[in-house]
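Fig. S4 source data, part A: sequence.
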Amino acid sequence: MINCVIQNICQNFEIKIKSNQIKFINCYISFSKIEKIIKKKKKTKKKKNQASQMSFSKSAQNTHVKGGHLHASCRRVDGSWNETNLNLDQHIGNDNGNLVWGAENFSKSCQNITVHDGHILKCEARRMDGSWNHTQINLDERIGNNNGHLVHG
């Protein structure tokens, strides 16, 4: 990786390491500058991977919920479609009538569960006093499409 970074900075180089400098033919660059370039490349790659997985709704169709599972046809990288599902009960819970990430088993205490606009999970969730609250959560916040498969991220 460092070799690739160096080649992008200087061509026909000869490496000589001295104190905190790398000497090239007609080119000097500090280790800290190389580290910054490498970190920037890693961040860019990570963001691209995250972006391709999040916002599943932009590459999904026929999205619906059944028994706590999100079902959809998701587009693969090659353009084909894959029928896939994800157990939302492992990621979403009911906190006194409100849908929340990081909890479990929302479907056990919710009714009239639907998906609107391909990514908004809506339902009536039971509060601790027994009343029902209309609530919703944006699935695109944490659900992605990884080459035709729904994933939580």
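Fig. S4 source data, part B ends here. The two ends are 27 Å apart (CA to CA).
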